[in-house]
Amino acid sequence: xxxxTLSEVLVPAKTxxxxxxxxxxxxxxxxxxxxxxxxxxxxxxxLQAGPSCRAHTPLPILGKMFRHLAEEAxxxxxxxxxxxxxxxxxxxxxxxxxxxxxxxxxxKPLQQNIDETAVIAEMAHKAGISCEGEIGFVGYDNxxxxxxxxPQEAAQFARETGVDAMAISVGNVHLQTDQSGxxxxxxxxxxxxxxxxxxxxxxxxxxxxxxRRALARGTNICKFNVGTxxxxxxxxxxxxxxxxxxxxxxxxxxxxxxxxxxxAAARRVFQTMRG
Length: 275
Ligand code: 13P
Description:
single chain; alpha/beta; TIM Barrel; eight-stranded parallel β-barrel; 12 helices; 9 strands; 49% helix; 16% strand; binds 1,3-dihydroxyacetonephosphate
């Protein structure tokens, strides 16, 4: 059984200078490939159920899938709720066996974000699991614009919510399909100068691998969320598998061919966060 809380994997990462990948899961095929990749690399993995994953599969089922994979795995596996928007959603994830809850109050005014996140963090800690919050706003490629994290507000947020990990907005943007973006290292240093809470970067796909590795080693960033980069690998592998034989119709056989390419892509992601 190697089910772990977020805090159990981030504390050693922060001390030892590496980061843990929070990988966006959409179904059985990708989550199973991510755990196989983590085992091949000998590193922990955070399996994340975000809004579109939850729209496709009910949370209680996802909790069972994540926990089953964790029980069989030889490396620590975190069952993480990504972008929970309400108390009810976070409570449902806790009851479904998740070991980490991200409450995203980043669209709300500062004090409301602090107050609501603090309630989720307290609920999580009482149950022996972890909580991640977000301060500032990480925008979306071709969508909502980012609002950079203010270092003073970040320090206040960390102090008053008691979160185990804090997602920050420092030039990162969700859903980028290339790595042309880069993070604002000056803003990261300013945040880190005022709080020593573990830092999280959402929109990891847009961050060049070299910068991921350097920041993992040299700052308190110890979690990068990566989704798009792996969804691209899955999508391309699926398209190839479908096109390979127009007469084939059995989806288990078609989907089976995504496994190796997704394992390889996830291994490359893990390699950018350590070493
Ligand atoms: P990307 O899809 O941009 O890698 O972002 C993933 C993420 O931040 C999920 O919370």
